[in-house]
Amino acid sequence: MSKQTQPPASGGFFKAAGSETAQDVGNVTARVPGTAPPVTDALAAKWKKHLGSAKIVWSRFSDEELLGSGGQVETLTAMVQERYALSPEEAGRRVRNFLQQYRM
User: pTM of the prediction?
Assistant: First the structure.
């Protein structure tokens, strides 16, 4: 007689498709569409390091405004679009170019 083994109740090695939990996937945070993702410590540190360069490029912003954006693409794009009266595409292109130049 052979005895069949069952996977552990806690999830074990094999799982049914779609049964992942946040614990299985890692540190997952829900994000509401249209909102900026959370600022990571690494991005915040890089952004602070290049804040002076951002101030030169976008001189119409105060240090506080730029610092408050956290270097987030969506936030910066919206700010640049509004302050410089640019199209969303052009503002996004300029922000992405700046961030790529400084490897952010």
Answer: 0.60
